[in-house]
Design brief:
Length: about 240
């Protein structure tokens, strides 16, 4: 039985979460599965000791964007869905900078939400609380990155981590593969090793993101410099 809904925790700065969201929208179009967008902060989970928490900064790339998303979600989940799709495409497909406040305002205006939505979200301390609650939910479940999926029966899965979202029948096959894990609640991990060719393919797929981002990536304290390194991670954050 395919689940009727799934809570999808994302950070709009993560290219892997965005690729998963593209795949899930294809699944939704074919099955009617409800996608409930939630948040998780890679900036916070990968914060280096001594650095400010993202909610302590006047503007923090992923965290501040998620505050905007939280405000839109109050209005309508469909508004958040539309906004996340546009912000994700701007960074991960076009190499733009939706994390720049001026660009963020322009995108909100383009979508009909109004540029002032950004200021409204930043002025409302409750948007901090809403993002924090979503983030803490993942941490409490033992989660560490995005995408993290919560299903109606309470089970939680990390992934799938991908760079080439399947479409059509292939999208459904992957959905059935992922949700098939729900039958085996004590299977905790399965992972595909990455060859040098895989690493190069991932770097090629991340080209727009690498052009658009304004930060270095960390994996639990380890700085990852793309593309000189041969390591990538879906647990990326920002310094």
């Amino acid at each position: 039985m395919r689940p009727p809904s799934v809570d999808v925790h994302v950070d709009p700065m993560c290219p892997f979460a965005y690729a998963t969201s593209v795949w899930l929208r294809d699944v939704r179009a074919q099955t009617g599965t409800a996608l409930n967008w939630r948040f998780f902060s890679l900036e916070e989970i990968n914060r280096v000791e001594g650095k400010k928490h993202p909610w302590e900064r006047p503007w923090s790339y992923g965290w501040s964007l998620m505050r905007v998303g939280a405000l839109l979600r109050r209005r309508d989940m469909a508004a958040l869905d539309t906004w996340y799709a546009r912000v994700g495409a701007e960074l991960h497909e076009r190499g733009g900078k939706p994390h720049d406040p001026q660009v963020a305002r322009a995108l909100l205006d383009e979508l009909g939400f109004g540029a002032a939505t950004l200021e409204e979200a930043m002025a409302d301390p409750a948007t901090h609380d809403e993002v924090r609650a979503d983030h803490d939910r993942v941490v409490a479940a033992g989660g560490f990155g995005v995408p993290t999926l919560f299903f109606p029966d309470g089970q939680c899965l990390f992934g799938p981590v991908l760079v080439d979202p399947p479409e059509g029948e292939r999208a459904l096959r992957l959905w059935d593969t992922v949700t098939g894990m729900l039958e085996f609640p004590h299977v905790y991990e399965i992972q595909r090793p990455k060859s040098d060719a895989d690493q190069q393919a991932i770097l090629a797929a991340l080209g727009p993101y690498l052009a658009g981002r304004d930060w270095v990536s960390v994996d639990r304290g380890e700085v990852i410099e793309f593309p000189s390194t041969n390591r990538t991670s879906s647990k990326e954050g920002t310094t």
